[in-house]
Every structure is written in C-alpha cells, then in structure tokens.
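Good morning,

Attaching, inline, the backbone tokens for the sequence recovery test we're adding to the shared suite. The designed sequence is right after.
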C-alpha cells in the first residue's frame, strides 16, 4: 500500500509543473463567454441545467473573475466536483470538457462568430 501511495505522489509531483504551466496559459488567454458552452453542448451532451450551473459558477467565484479563459475552466471544474445533483456520468463529462479546455486555445472567428478550439499539445 505504501508503495502505491509513493508511486501516486511521485507521479503527481512529476506532472505538477505541466499543470501549472497549463493554468498559466489559461490566465493569458481572453475570457470565453458562456455561449461557447452552447456551441459545445452537443459534443459534450450538455443540457441547459449544466450550462446554467457553469454560468452561475463563473459569476459566483469567490476570488472574482480574472477575465481570462481560466474563469470557464475553473467554473467547469467547480461544477464537476461540487454539484452533488449531477450524475457520475455528467460529472465526468463536465470534467472532460474542463480537461480539454485546459489543453486548448479557444477564440472566436472574426468572420463567422464560431468558437474555434485549437489543442495546444
């Protein structure tokens, strides 16, 4: 058991700098409006309730908005980990979207208005 704990802690420590770099990158990118979630709703099976929960979480963040892409990432993570009324499948879906967002650059096309997602890895 201690060997497994040591292994998990070592792995988490090894990944820490990459995760912090990803958060730093999110903090350098312009904020995404909640209509991004509307666009991604079919791909991630997001219903109106989940979208509203994420929008509410963005507005009620106790540290206030950063006006960066981090705000949406943080709201998605909060909803996935703190909303007891979501099913396990819904929580995984929201967390998967947060994970994908954390590895992506998102911006709106200036010509058509569509949100474009570019993976950064």
């Amino acid at each position: 058991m201690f060997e497994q704990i040591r292994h998990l802690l070592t792995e988490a420590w090894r990944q820490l700098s990459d995760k912090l770099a990803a958060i730093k990158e999110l903090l350098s990118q312009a904020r995404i409006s909640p209509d991004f979630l509307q666009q991604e709703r079919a791909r991630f099976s997001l219903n109106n309730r989940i979208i509203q929960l994420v929008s509410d979480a963005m507005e009620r963040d106790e540290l206030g908005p950063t006006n960066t892409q981090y705000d949406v990432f943080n709201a998605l993570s909060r909803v996935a980990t703190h909303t007891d009324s979501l099913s396990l499948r819904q929580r995984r879906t929201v967390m998967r979207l947060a994970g994908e967002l954390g590895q992506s650059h998102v911006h709106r096309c200036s010509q058509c208005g569509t949100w474009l997602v570019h993976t950064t890895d």
